[in-house]
């Protein structure tokens, strides 16, 4: 093993250098790093950074210990022990960078010549600081039509699988309804009433910027209603906490729609008629009824008593209800069909499923509609906007990561649209980059906001090209759980080629997901695995070659500020920024990941020429004129970053400037331009409230299955009707498999991110400072159980308990609390497991993921591909020696 060596005497120095934090996926906090005699001694917030204004969280300060972690990967390594397993000594031997890169490049060259699909690139939040691996650093000005995963695009493989997404597949609804990516976020500038189901607005994970906006909103009087099995930090500061059974948020949302349509009977009629497809006539087949000549969707004008195309300038009014015959066909407006479906979802019905009292649902819905101030307006820079200061937050991981969870997210869109709170001041928005801008709500030929990314889906091809079964789950997010099953059972999954190599970049699917043994067996089956990593986590321990990546504080890097997360307000609206980091002195023989990628591409023969890495970089970053890379020249990473800075901010700016100040930024869309409604006002665009596009996706998939006489892998033939229930144009309640659990599984389990470990990014799992803090936290490392529930089961505070689902079991100490639903067991964060080469603190804490399964017909949402994170469980007290 490599040891820390000091090759030259330390220079006497005392300085602060601009940097930024990478201890969570957001990475938007500018920092100042204090260095004394070459040693990092302190980290504080950069007061001039517009996102965090000098504030940092506990993780940022603790990154000092990530830098000086003695368990880091310190040099290139080669496996000598052919037996593989997370806790089996690989027999690492240190090799030179030249040898390591040549071994990997030769493997890549051979695979690329034979069939590039045989390479699977794993990416995760551990490589969020990579311009060439992940799609997280891409401008979306060309409506998401540029390639995002640069390395894979240049190599020629379609197989890029994210380990970070299967329990957080939250993108589809925002991609479909308002052209946003990655998700909905709360616009707090004018919001007076916010319903937050299963998500954070900032404080729950201690993000400085979002927490600041949250506090400001609460102080000015915003009412926060939290729907969550546990009383979170945010819930404790809010107006109302509504405890709910995990995975039943869909029933709550359906009931809210029922109350609005059948009990309150007040909604934004103007918005539904002019800003949605609610008036579009739907035929018996569930599709738009179209004009025979123009093929445009038809609406019914009740004044002229005739059907007209949606954009006919002679329209006097739009019918939202009723039945109309068009060309001999009986049709109904989409809104009528939505209303009919929602009739059965009364608060009393929802109470039986969610445990939320019917009157609580009614009261919350009534307050929501009242606070929306339907019909009100606000003037910004001389432009009159609808003002809707109420919104229900979608995209919450806790609410969406269930089978049927994407229907819930779509329901939140319907609720917001019913009061007109969509892309207007006070209402729901998203965090597209750059944004706000005219592209976000640009309509398609049907007058509907263009769907993007996951809402468009992956085209059908058979046999499938994608090892993660994207052809069968066209609108899914990431599906590593499908990829490993396909590798182990290629015939069942119609995979016609073997995976011969893994390139692992900051991903740890063995610990981050579930069904760990399936992942381990799949990894054993792959002949060659290379890991670019900072630590010896479970997945790195399966590698044949380990390429050590520099810790983020050692990387000279520029992160192009992508999107604000959790919330937005005028302080960051329209902000475009490049955060720049000056590296601290390196400790070990490591490299930055993108420099490794350049080396591999060069040595494997796909750096230069048309279609090579340089070419894909040009297209992805939309480099123009003199900023374009010469296709036949090798560039340093610094040169590429400098050209990108000039492309975004102008030739007068540079990487050197960014390093000196710590950032370069501008506000490109402020005032009236900071709201997407401004670009497409009135009826210039329409949001889908009836999801015809979803139905079309499902019907097309069903037709292709029939055409090729195949089924969905992992699903029985008789289960396919259930699969396609998730592709209907109007959401409905579908009980998931956990409602069928045997009676002994009398509780539910819930999980949430915490300030100590929202992600494993930056090595939070084995950071000793964070470990000391969480070990002394009264809630963090425990299994939460309601006080009354614990008494009934003979469990006392601090007792060792075992929690068991139908898929696995975990152990830990009980924490009795009133802050959790009586029928729910709570387990924070993603602790446990670890390896023999990690800091022993990495093994501490009850692992949650062992309680889940990713078996397709049991726990997967067919629409989003998410894994259900809320299984039924039972709990029992165990003796301490049994722990």
Please outline the helices and strands.
Elements: E1 14-20, E2 30-36, E3 39-45, H1 58-67, E4 77-78, E5 93-94, H2 97-114, E6 119-123, H3 150-155, E7 160-162, H4 172-177, E8 184-187, E9 193-197, H5 208-219, E10 223-227, H6 233-237, E11 240-242, H7 249-264, H8 269-275, E12 281-282, E13 298-301, E14 306-309, E15 324-326, E16 329-333, H9 334-342, H10 347-354, H11 358-372, E17 377-380, E18 383-386, E19 390-392, H12 397-400, H13 405-418, E20 428-430, H14 480-488, E21 501-505, H15 509-512, H16 516-525, E22 528-533, E23 545-548, E24 557-560, E25 567-568, E26 575-581, H17 593-604, H18 613-620, H19 637-649, H20 655-661, E27 663-667, H21 692-708, H22 720-724, E28 747-752, H23 768-776, E29 783-786, H24 787-792, E30 800-804, E31 809-817, E32 824-828, H25 856-859, E33 872-877
Parallel strand pairs: 6-7, 6-21, 8-25, 9-10, 9-19, 10-11, 21-22, 22-23, 28-32, 29-31
Antiparallel strand pairs: 1-2, 2-3, 4-5, 4-23, 8-20, 12-16, 13-14, 15-16, 17-18, 24-26, 26-27, 28-33, 29-32, 30-31, 30-33
Strand numbers in spatial order across the main sheet: 5-4-23-22-21-6-7
CATH topology of the domain at 172-433 and 685-712: Dimethylsulfoxide Reductase, domain 2
User: Superfamily at the CATH H level of the domain at 172-433 and 685-712?
Assistant: Dimethylsulfoxide Reductase, domain 2
Please identify, by name, the CATH architecture of the domain at 172-433 and 685-712.
3-Layer(aba) Sandwich
Question: Biggest β-sheet, characterized?
Answer: 7 strands, mixed
Q: Which spans have pLDDT < 50 for at least 5 consecutive residues?
A: 1-9
Figure out the total of helices: 25
Q: In percent terms, what proportion of residues is strand? A: 15-25%
Helix content: 25-40%
Radius of gyration using CA atoms only = 27 Å
Mean pLDDT: 95
The global form is globular
> According to CATH, what is the class of the domain at 172-433 and 685-712?
Alpha Beta
Q: What is the number of beta strands?
A: 33
Helix and strand content put the structural class at alpha/beta
């Amino acid at each position: 093993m490599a040891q820390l060596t000091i090759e030259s005497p330390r220079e006497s120095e005392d300085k602060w250098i601009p940097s930024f934090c990478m201890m969570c996926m957001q990475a938007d906090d500018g920092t100042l790093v204090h260095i004394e005699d070459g040693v990092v001694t302190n980290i504080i917030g950069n007061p001039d950074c517009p996102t965090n204004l000098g504030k940092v969280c506990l993780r940022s300060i603790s990154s000092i210990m990530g830098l000086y972690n003695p368990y880091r990967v310190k040099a290139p390594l080669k496996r000598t022990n052919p037996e593989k397993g997370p806790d089996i000594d690989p027999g690492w031997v240190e090799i030179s960078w030249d040898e390591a890169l040549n071994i990997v490049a030769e493997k890549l060259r051979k695979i690329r010549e034979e069939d590039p699909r045989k390479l699977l690139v794993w990416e995760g939040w551990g490589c969020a600081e990579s311009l060439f691996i992940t799609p997280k650093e891409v401008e979306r000005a060309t409506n998401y039509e540029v390639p995002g995963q640069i390395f894979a695009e240049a190599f020629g493989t379609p197989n890029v699988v994210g380990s970070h997404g299967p329990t957080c597949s939250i993108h589809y609804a925002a991609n479909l309804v308002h052209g946003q990516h990655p998700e909905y976020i709360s616009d707090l500038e004018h919001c007076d009433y916010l319903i937050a189901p299963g998500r954070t607005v900032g404080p729950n994970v201690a993000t400085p910027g979002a927490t600041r906006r949250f506090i400001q909103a609460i102080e000015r009087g915003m009412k926060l209603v939290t729907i969550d099995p546990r009383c979170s930090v945010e819930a404790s500061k809010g107006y109302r906490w509504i405890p709910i059974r995990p995975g039943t948020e869909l029933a709550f949302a359906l009931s809210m729609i029922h109350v609005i349509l059948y009990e309150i009977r007040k909604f934004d009629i103007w918005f539904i008629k002019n800003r949605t497809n609610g008036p579009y006539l739907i035929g018996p087949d569930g599709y738009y009824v179209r004009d025979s000549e123009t093929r445009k969707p038809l609406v019914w004008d009740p004044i002229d008593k005739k059907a007209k195309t949606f954009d006919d300038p002679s329209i006097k009014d739009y019918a939202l209800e009723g039945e109309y015959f068009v060309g001999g066909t009986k049709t109904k407006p989409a809104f009528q069909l939505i209303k009919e479906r929602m009739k059965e979802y009364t608060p009393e019905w929802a109470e039986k499923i969610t445990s939320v009292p019917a009157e609580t649902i009614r009261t919350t819905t009534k307050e929501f509609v009242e606070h929306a101030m339907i019909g009100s307006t606000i003037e910004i820079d001389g432009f009159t906007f609808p003002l809707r200061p109420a919104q229900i937050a979608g995209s919450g991981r806790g609410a969406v990561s269930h089978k049927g969870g994407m229907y819930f997210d779509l329901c939140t869109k319907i609720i917001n649209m019913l009061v007109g709170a969509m892309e207007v001041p006070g209402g729901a928005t998203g965090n597209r980059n750059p944004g706000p801008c005219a592209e976000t709500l640009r309509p398609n030929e049907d007058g509907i906001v263009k769907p993007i990314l996951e809402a468009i889906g992956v085209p059908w091809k058979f046999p499938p090209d994608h090892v993660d079964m994207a052809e069968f789950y066209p609108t899914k997010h990431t599906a590593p759980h499908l990829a490993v099953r396909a590798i182990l059972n290629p015939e069942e999954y119609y995979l016609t080629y073997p995976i011969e190599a893994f390139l692992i970049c900051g991903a740890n699917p063995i610990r981050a997901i579930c069904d760990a043994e399936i992942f381990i067996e799949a990894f054993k089956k792959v002949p060659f695995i290379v890991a670019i990593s900072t630590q010896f986590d479970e997945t790195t321990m399966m590698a044949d070659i380990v390429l050590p990546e520099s810790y983020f504080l050692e990387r000279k890097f520029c992160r192009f500020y992508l999107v604000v997360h959790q919330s937005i307000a005028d302080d960051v609206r329209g902000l475009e920024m490049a955060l720049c980091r000056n590296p601290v002195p390196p400790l070990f023989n490591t490299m930055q990941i993108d420099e490794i990628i350049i080396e591999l591409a060069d040595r494997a023969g796909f750096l230069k020429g048309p279609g090579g890495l340089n070419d894909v970089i040009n297209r992805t970053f939309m480099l123009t004129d003199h900023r374009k890379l010469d296709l036949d020249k090798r560039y340093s990473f610094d040169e590429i970053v400098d050209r990108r800075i000039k492309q975004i901010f102008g030739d007068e700016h540079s990487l050197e400037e960014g390093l000196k100040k710590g950032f370069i930024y501008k506000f490109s869309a402020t005032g009236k331009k900071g709201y997407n409604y401004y670009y497409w006002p009135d009826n210039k665009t329409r949001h889908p409230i009836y999801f015809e596009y979803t139905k079309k996706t499902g019907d097309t998939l069903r037709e292709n299955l029939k055409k090729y006489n195949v089924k969905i892998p992992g699903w029985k033939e008789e289960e396919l009707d259930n699969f396609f229930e998730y592709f209907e144009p109007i959401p409905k309640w579908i009980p998931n498999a956990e409602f069928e659990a045997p009676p002994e599984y009398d509780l539910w389990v819930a999980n949430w991110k915490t300030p100590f470990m929202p992600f494993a990014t930056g090595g939070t799992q084995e950071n000793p400072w964070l470990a000391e803090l969480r070990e002394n936290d009264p809630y963090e490392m425990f299994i939460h159980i309601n006080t009354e529930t614990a008494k009934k089961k003979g469990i006392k505070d601090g007792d060792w308990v075992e929690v068991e689902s139908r898929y696995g079991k975990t152990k830990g100490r009980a924490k009795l609390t009133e802050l959790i639903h009586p029928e729910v067991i709570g387990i924070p964060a993603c602790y446990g497991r670890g390896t023999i080469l990690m800091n022993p603190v990495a093994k501490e804490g009850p692992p949650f993921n062992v309680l889940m399964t990713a078996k397709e017909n049991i726990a997967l949402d067919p629409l989003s591909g998410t894994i259900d994170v809320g299984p039924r469980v039972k709990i029992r007290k165990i003796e301490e020696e049994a722990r």
